[in-house]
Amino acid sequence: MKKTIDNDNNKTAFLPALFSGAGGKIVAVFAALFVFGVIILLFSGSGEQKQADGGDFCESEYISQLENKLESMISEIDGVGKVNVMLTLEGSAKSIFAKDVASSSAADESHSSRSDNSSVVFGSGSSSSREPVSIGEVYPTVRGVAVVCDGAVNSAVREKVISLVTCALNISTNRVCVTN
Asked: Is 80 within 8 Å of 161 (Cβ atoms)?
């Protein structure tokens, strides 16, 4: 027995006919799996976006964290009093990407030569969404630090503050100014 569906008269009868009978259960299962797969893809795509956004470098946030940590450490020194810290950065953050390096060398009687070819490694995926594989990030270096504190009138306190800042940030003393 063959069922025919009249498109003009029975447009709404198509779906019930599709899901009826033994073959209809299989179609219903595949439809449910398809909808479930689409939902999984939607949620997994948004998770990747959040992860990528969370990995971005924010210079102002980095500066603020360093300043707050320095203020906290400096305020622990006896006799410092109220503390304000400002720091400046040199350069910007740089990503380090994985590279594939191929070396070749040739030698003859008179001389030898060597050549190195390198190319950035890209992640798997479609050709339009391929991104280079990041293996790390180099943060900008501290250019200078200004510290204003009540205890800077005392030279011993000033020296302790300068020593703490230079050790914590691995910078020279000429990059630190402490005043009251």
From this structure: yes
- Strands 83-90, 134-138: pairing is unpaired
Give φ, ψ of 114 to 5 degrees.
Answer: -140, 140
Look at residue 97 and tell me whether its pLDDT is greater than 70: yes
CA distances from 173 to 14, 20, 63 (A): 81, 83, 19
How many angstroms separate the CA atoms of 111 and 155, rounded?
64
Distance, in Å, from the CA atom of 36 to the CA atom of 38, rounded to the nearest integer, reads: 6
Question: What amino acid occupies position 164?
Answer: L
What distance in Å separates the CA atoms of residue 74 and residue 71, rounded to the nearest whole number?
5
Please tell me what DSSP assigns to residue 132: B
pLDDT tens digits along 121-130: 777 765 556 7
Q: Would you say the pTM of this structure is higher than 0.90?
A: no
Which residue intervals of the chain are DSSP H helices? 14-18, 21-54, 59-75, 155-169
Residue 69: which residues within 8 A CB-CB, separation 6 or more? 168
Question: Helices then strands (H, E): number in the chain?
Answer: 4, 7
What's the length of the chain?
180
Question: Residue 20 corresponds to which tokens in the numbers above?
Answer: 């009826």
* Alpha carbon distance 149, 70 (integer Å): 12
